[in-house]
Amino acid sequence: MAFEIGPGLKISIKGYIIIKRQEPASSSYVYTGGERPQLAVGSSTLQAEDTARSVEKVEIRKAYKFGGETVSFTPEEIAEIKSFGDPVLRIIGFKPLSMLPIWANYRPSTFIYPSEEDIIGSTRVFSALQQKLLKDQKMGLAWYIPRRNATPTLAAVIPGAERLDDDGVQVMPPGLWIHVLPFADDVRQIPDTSVVQAPDVLVDRMRMVIQQLQLPKAVYDPKKYPNPSLQWFYRILQALALEEDMPEKPDDKTLPRYRQIDKRAGEYVLDWGAELEEQYEIWRKANAGRHTATGATKRGSAAAGEGGKRTKTATEATSKSSDLISDEEMRKAFETNKINKLTVAVLKAWCKEKGIKLPTAAKKGDVVDEVTSHFENKMVL
User: Fold this and answer.
1) Is position 363 within any domain?
2) What's the number of domains the chain is made of?
């Protein structure tokens, strides 16, 4: 691809997609109804609607409706309309790198590198541009057409520094990244919602939980977590090709290690849950009487009560139905170590239904222990 840095200044580059989501791709259909799987060959025929005769490709013309009339185009005219020129990356200006927001990202970025095949001296010019952008923390704004008949987009040309691992081996070479920018139609507006800010004591307790669950060296390595859906697809494909028995269960290495998480952070999670209940009660008492069931602020003291009556809030009206959980769901939560993620109201409602006696001032940790003991005793019996 041509890289136009300025008027009359053009070099040659190559692009690479470094990180891309790999998905199952089916190149053909497989018929499994016989004794052994076979490739199915498909064929299609175009027919006229009125006479049902076969139509050749040369007879087909594309048409569009404009103002109630049908306007047809030849394949050459369609190709000319869709053509915006040859593939190119053309710099149209420079901006500070800090002006690029983190949310302006909806496509995988392309890594570009100089190529001496078409234009000699591309490497020297490319290296000078990359070092200058990296030194000044700037980015280039570019007109970008990745391939023929592709829709042009605006892109940010971002400098990338060389990265080495602990042993001094190059992990990422220096170069430039093409970061496709979204148009206004691609950006969705965030709805205006009011949130309740958590108190500092709750944030501090959650910080203790997060510190116990850090990855090694705080670095996520996607190579250690293969796509379970893709691996399952390959496993089925292998079984069909080699006429092996079909596997029953996929090997999913992305599942959390619940027991290890519970061992490291279980105590801190229970402390955080108890603190959350206390802080919620404090917040509820402080905001009692300020809002109605619809969230509107009450006006005057007359609405506060007539004869001591109080209107049920929407939460109270639906608490009985929302707090109910089936035995199967609770057992699943026990098997996956997710009981402590359920609310106290749900746990107490389930215990009441099962006749499990709880202390009067039972905290969430006590309720979780009672539910866990209930299932463990059943398994022993």
Assistant:
1) yes
2) 3
